[in-house]
Amino acid sequence: MGYAKGPMAVDWEERYDFVALRTKRIAKVRAELRGSDLDAMLLWKNENVRYLTSLRAQIIAYKASSLNGVLLSPTSEPVLLCSGGELDKARFGMPWLASSHAIPIMEQRELVDGFVTDILTPQLRELGVTGGRLGIDQANLSLIESIHKHLPNFQLTDADTVMQRARLIKLDEEIPIIEEACAIGDSVTQRALDETRAGRRECDVAGDALQTLYYLGGEMPHVITPYVASGEHMSPPHRLCTDKVIRNQDLCFIDIGAMWNGYFADIGRTTIVGKPSRRQKEIYTAVYEGLMAGIAVMRPGRTNLDVANAIIAKVSKHGFGDNLFSLFIGHGIGIGANEPPYIGETLPGATVYELRPNMVFAVEPLVWVPDVRGGGGVRIEDMVLVTEGDPRILSRVEYEERLLM
To answer: Which pTM was predicted?
Structure first.
C-alpha cells in the first residue's frame, strides 16, 4: 500500500518518479491516438497540456483555453505551443520538451490567423501531417474558422474523448502523487475546520485554508472559488464563500481541496458550530451512511451506476431521497479536477462504466432540506481509489461524530 511520503525531493528515500510518469503518459496517449481515426491532435485544455508536457503555467482568469496548447501526432514528441511568458521557462527548465513555440493569446482574429498560417501549418508539416483528421479538445470559434480557411485539407473532430480514455485508468506512478495531493488537501480541510467558529465569516475560513494550501506547496485549490457555506447557505447550497457571519448552530461545509504537481484532491467535510439539532443529525447521518454504502461497492466489475444506486438507496432509507442535490454525486479525478466517469449523473447521455483498478473518484453525496434552523444541508466527500480488492479511501479527515445519530 502506498502513502504520501512528503512533497520534497530527498536523497534517502525513493518518492516520485516524474521521468517515468512523463514517458508513460505520452505513451498512453500515443496508443489511444493510434487506435483512433485521428492524424494529429491540437489540445488546449489545461489538464491535457499538463498531461503531455508537464507545463505548470500561469493561469489568467477566463483565458484557460486561449493561452497554451500542445500538438501531437501518433509518432511525434509533443510540441508545446505556449504563451510567450512561458517560453523561456520551457526552453531552459524543461529539457524533456523536444520543441516549444511562442503563441499569442488565442482570441484576436488577426493573431489567430497568424498562428494558423505561420506557426501551426509549418509545425504540422514538420510532423509529416499535411491533411486528414485534426482532433481538438476545445477552442475559440475564431481558431476553428481560421483552420477551416487556411487548412482546407484538414477535418476538425473531437480529441478530448481520446484524452479521456488515456487518463481514465491511472498509472501506478500517478497514484502516489494523488495521495500527496490528498495529504495537502486533508491539511487544507483540517485548517478550515479548526478555524470554523461563531463570529467568523465564511471568507475568513477560506483565507486561512488557502494559507495552508500555499504553505504546503499546493498549486491551487480544487475549486478556484473556495467553497465554504454555513447555515442557510447550504439550503440550497451556495457553492462559494461569502461575507456571511458563521453563527451558533450553523452547519458549515468546507470544499477547497488541493492540486500538487498537476494532480487534484477533492475533499469535503461538514461540521457544526455549537450543538446540533436532531434534524441536522438525521441529515448528516443519512449522507454519511450513503457515502459509506457507495464506497463499499466500488470494486472491479461493479459500475458507477451500482455506486449511485447504493448511495441513493441508503439516503432514501433515511427519508431524504428527494432531497439529494441535483448535481452528480461523484466524479473521476486526477490531472483533471472533474473528469469522467461520473457517479449519479441523470442528464441525457449519462453512461455506465465498469469500475477498474486504478480508477480514482471523488464521491460527494449532498442532501439539503429547507427551513432548518442553522441550515439543513450536508455534504461529505472522499477520494477513493479502486483496487483489485477493497476500495481505498485516500482522504483521511475525520468525520463529525457530533452529527452522527
So the answer is: 0.96
On whether both 267 and 356 belong to a single domain, the answer is yes
The pLDDT value given to residue 1: 62
- Chain CA centroid to CA 112, Å: 29
Q: Is residue 381 part of a domain?
A: yes
Which of 149, 167, 185 is the endpoint of a domain?
A: 167
Sequence-distant (6+) residues with CB within 8 A of 121 are 150, 151
How many domains is the chain built from? 2
Other Cβ atoms within 10 Å of 390 Cβ, number: 11
Calpha distance 80→247 (Å, rounded) = 50
Q: Is 379 exposed, middle or buried (0-12, 13-18, 19+ CB in 10 A)?
A: buried
The answer to whether 370 touches 323, Cβ cutoff 8 Å, is: no
Q: Which domain holds residue 217?
A: 174-403
pLDDT tops 80 at residue 4 = yes
| CB-based burial label for 125 (10 Å; 0-12, 13-18, 19+) | exposed
Residue 9 is assigned to a structural domain of this protein: no
